Amino acid sequence: MRNITVSVDDETYKRARIVAAEQDTSVSALVKTYLIQLATQESEFERLKRQEQEIRDKILSFNASDRLTRDELHDRHR
């Protein structure tokens, strides 16, 4: 486990201490929880990669025989 040092202004620290006290925890625990949530979120790269795979899956399931005829496409059917 790594230790980190974070510098914040006095007002931010005071407010963080109040929030921590209200939640019956420490400022350090609040920061740790926030960083864990941040690190477990899907990154932009991961999101785009997932979307690409979803699109590729749709393309693979595409069947040209499901297409409309030319007349149906142009509302020419009688």
Discrete helix count: 4
State the assembly state of the protein chains.
single chain
Could you estimate the helical fraction of the residues in percent?
55-70%
Instruction: Tell me the radius of gyration.
Output: 27 Å
Whole-number average pLDDT? 89
Determine the structural class based on helices, strands and strand pairing.
Answer: mainly alpha
Q: Bin the strand percentage.
A: under 5%
Contiguous low-pLDDT stretches (5 residues minimum) are none
Shape: rod-shaped
Q: How many domains, in number, for the residues? A: 1
N-to-C span = 73 Å
- How many strands, what sense, and barrel or not for the largest sheet? none
Order of helices and strands: HHHH
Tally of strands = 0
Q: Any chance you could write out the topology, listing elements then pairs?
A:
Elements: H1 10-22, H2 27-40, H3 44-60, H4 70-73
